[in-house]
Design goal:
single chain; about 45% helix; two-stranded antiparallel ribbon; alpha/beta; Dehydroquinate synthase-like, alpha domain; Rossmann fold; 7-stranded mixed beta sheet; 11 strands
Amino acid sequence: MTSEVTVRARSGAYKVYCGSNAVQMLPDLIRSMGLAGKIFLITNKRIDAIHGEKVWEILKITGRKVAKVSIEDGERYKNSGTVTKIADALLRYRCRRNDLLVVFGGGVTGDIGGFAAGILLRGLPYVHLASTLMAQVDSSIGGKVGVNHRLGKNLIGLFYQPRFVICDTNFLCTLDLRDWRNGMAEIIKYAFIRKPEMFDKIFGLQDFPGFSVDVIDGIVHDCIEIKARIVEEDEFEQGIRAILNYGHTFGHAIETYFEHKKISHGEAVSMGMVAAAKLSRNLGYISNDEVKLHIDVLSRFGLPVKMPRIDIEDLLNIMDSDKKHLQENRFVILKKVGKPVIVEEVDQQEIISALR
């Protein structure tokens, strides 16, 4: 059964459709948009090889002309060069403002495709067909799109909302274990910052890939609901939306340190949440037991909880660079599990202690 969550963003409301086989809704949803132009399927080579033919055939049901642009998969390809490749292809196919971009893939493809939609011809309509657990529970909702720069993660981007999002949980059956764990890091984040009662459901997902469809559908819906309500309150991340970055201030710096090659986003966020929990404890909020809860839950899903061999001084420099560019080097810590707070001035020794 498909569930719906409405995201009432200030720049435009849209629906997120979640459930097994939700992709079959795609033709009717596209027809309801009233656009008369072509459809451009933006996807990555890995997901295209697995599900591309199925999605292509579903899009052909619309009766519209469909063209495909396939990009490389992976965080290291999340850059301006990939955006240029998409732009070259779409402009060569004489893309117009009444055309539609269907972005099919996970978080990286969604960020790149959404960014291309936002800047081409000063804005093209796009929808996100989210294929990974991380995209379904987090990155496909909220309209934060963009690419990385050599000086840091997500330094080039904008807020640009999709017309709708489809999270077909059948796609999750073909994930590899590492992608599954990446998504689990974001799910666990939601439990720590907003809904601790999710932990009972979360522990029911350990049997990957033999998880219960009903359980995963419910958890994906819960995460979408949480993020939708936060985005409605703070679309452009001027305040409360920053709590969604729990573990990410440390995590993004770790990703940049390893040049987006060795450590995946979910792995970096996992280590970042442990560091954030230690920082919360060091600042006098949560207990050692609550830090241990982080370590136990994340470890249960095979996520890393110890820092790799790393030069802390270099990591601090990366975090300082992020602060200079984005003014976002705020730390999300926990007053208690389920009660996050944002702090902006943290003594450097406390940061070093949390990283160790």
